[in-house]
């Protein structure tokens, strides 16, 4: 049961009938309710163009929860209690009446609960609706109460640096900074939050967390899934915009950031944006040497033939969009000078897993005979974000026996073996934080712009110069050969954890 008490809250979910609400938001709210994190007085108002009654909407949510909740099918009694707080409002984002109606509903709750509730407007809609919805919320004076009203938006935060600046300008003109919550769901993942705990709550790491001891860092987020039914969105986006601009660069910031002075949201976000500012900008020559793109061809996945990217629904048959990207970054500051950060992500790859590998420098002098050290490996710290949730330190140790043979062994902290309770989903953490008014795990406008600024030279080069060899990797492989070459040139190989069943 919870220890933190959240205030009475009204959630208004734009895109109430959409996929994000079905798969993530509704199950997350329901699980927060089950675990006692929701306040006694709460209300969830789904809204969208579809004509639905409260009853029909509740029935849909019930099915979504049965299908997607980490806690399995909804319990009858609990659901009955929960659904009393769920409503639906048919809306037209362009129509002022829609917003008046929200206002009336919020006031009705305030009167009934005899308190000024928090109100969270969640924009689970296509970014084309951001300007109209946010402007209308402000116009209807629904967001004037800076202390109680928050607006949550989902990525993509712009399509490039210019459009991100425009969006930031729009939001800054309408709301106070502390009302704006840009969601990057990676930051809500339990294992991702643990990077900061692990780095800053253990004194043994800081002395070695730098260029003197660390040889290189790898951040690898690979997916077996293809673009599924999101071809129209993805074809205008690609791996750089969809994953690297946000999730992967945020992971990199957590690994590379300086120690914050306190656990204060802005202090932490300042330290993260420092990393983005310190990252080396790409010249056209750097793009050629340090950035690799790929697109999947058809292939076989576990006995089933899967289509290539250009054959997917709603994708241009001549598409130049990358479904894979691997980049070598540098962070130009004292701590990281000369340490490469290799980042890769892609769809339709061999394994679904997100792993950060920190490889330490080799011992300065080897005292063991060659026969003893045949399987010698440099020390590695492996932070596995998903599906395995673990932190491993790979070290050399003597294999038991009469002879001196060294083996690489893992010292492991595994969530499964250590904790019995199920980890919350990222969206549970992030929704709770919006209720509590804690922005630590949310992207700030300047971080978003700094990340765009960094990747723009790569994007422009790739847009201006179409790839001549797309598709260049087959489904279920580890991506294009050029990605192997990128890291092999420096004498390294991509690391992956052997996983038994990684299918998502
Ligand atoms: C989303 C991307 O932000 O993250 C998707 O738009 C991607 O393309 C997803 O599949 C990956 O998230 P997760 O939590 O499944 O690793």
UniProtKB/TrEMBL annotation:
The kind of enzyme this is, by top-level EC class, is oxidoreductase
Chain positions recorded as substrate binding sites: 185, 189, 223, 242, 347
**Entry-linked Pfam families:** G6PD_C, G6PD_N
- In this protein, which residues make up the domain named Glucose-6-phosphate dehydrogenase C-terminal? 196-494
Q: Which domain of life is it from?
A: Bacteria
Going by the UniProt record, its keywords in alphabetical order are: Carbohydrate metabolism, Glucose metabolism, NADP, Oxidoreductase
Q: Where is the active site?
A: 247 (proton acceptor)
What family, per the record? Belongs to the glucose-6-phosphate dehydrogenase family.
The protein here is known as Glucose-6-phosphate 1-dehydrogenase
Source organism of this protein record: Mucilaginibacter corticis
Name of the encoding gene: zwf
């Amino acid at each position: 049961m919870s220890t933190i008490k959240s205030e009475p809250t009204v959630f208004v979910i734009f895109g109430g009938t959409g996929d994000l609400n079905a798969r993530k938001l509704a199950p997350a709210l329901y699980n927060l309710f089950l675990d006692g994190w929701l306040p006694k007085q709460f209300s969830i108002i789904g809204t969208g163009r579809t004509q639905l009654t409260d009853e029909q909407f509740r029935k849909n949510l019930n099915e979504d929860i049965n299908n997607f909740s980490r806690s399995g099918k909804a319990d009858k009694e609990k659901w009955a209690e929960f659904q009393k707080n769920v409503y639906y409002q048919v809306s037209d984002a362009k129509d002022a009446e829609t917003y008046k109606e929200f206002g009336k509903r919020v006031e009705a709750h305030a009167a009934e609960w005899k308190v000024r509730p928090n109100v969270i407007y969640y924009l689970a809609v296509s970014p084309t609706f951001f300007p109209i919805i946010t402007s209308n919320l402000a116009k209807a004076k629904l967001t004037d109460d800076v202390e109680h009203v928050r607006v949550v938006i989902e990525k993509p935060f712009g399509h490039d640096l210019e459009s991100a600046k425009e969006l930031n300008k729009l939001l800054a003109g309408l709301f106070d900074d502390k009302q704006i919550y840009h969601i990057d769901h990676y930051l809500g993942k339990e294992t991702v939050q643990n990077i900061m705990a692990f780095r800053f709550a253990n004194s043994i790491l800081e002395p070695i967390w730098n260029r003197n001891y660390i040889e290189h860092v790898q951040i690898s987020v690979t997916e077996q899934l293809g673009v599924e039914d999101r071809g129209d969105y993805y074809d205008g986006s690609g791996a750089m915009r969809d994953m690297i601009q946000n999730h992967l660069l945020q992971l990199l910031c957590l690994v590379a950031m300086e120690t914050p002075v306190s656990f204060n949201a802005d202090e932490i976000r300042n330290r993260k944006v420092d990393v983005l500012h310190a990252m080396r900008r790409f010249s056209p020559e750097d793009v050629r040497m340090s950035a690799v793109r790929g697109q999947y061809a058809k292939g076989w996945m576990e006995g089933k033939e899967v289509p290539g990217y250009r054959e997917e629904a709603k994708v241009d048959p001549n598409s130049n969009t990358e479904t894979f990207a691997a980049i070598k970054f540098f962070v130009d500051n004292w701590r990281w000078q000369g340490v490469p950060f290799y980042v890769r992500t892609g769809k339709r790859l061999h394994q679904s897993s997100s792993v950060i590998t920190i490889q330490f420098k080799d011992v300065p002098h080897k005292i063991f005979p060659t026969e003893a050290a045949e399987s010698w490996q440099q020390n590695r710290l492996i932070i596995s974000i998903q599906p395995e949730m673990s932190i491993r330190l790979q070290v050399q140790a003597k294999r038991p026996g009469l002879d001196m043979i060294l083996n690489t062994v893992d010292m492991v902290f595994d969530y499964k073996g250590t904790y019995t309770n199920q980890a919350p989903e990222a969206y549970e953490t992030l929704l709770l934080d919006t209720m509590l008014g804690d922005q630590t795990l949310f992207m700030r406008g300047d971080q978003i712009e700094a990340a765009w600024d960094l990747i723009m030279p790569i994007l422009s080069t790739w847009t201006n110069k179409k790839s001549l060899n797309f598709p260049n990797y087959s489904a279920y492989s580890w991506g294009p050969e050029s990605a192997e070459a990128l890291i092999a040139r420096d004498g390294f190989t991509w690391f992956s954890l052997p996983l038994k069943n990684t299918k998502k």
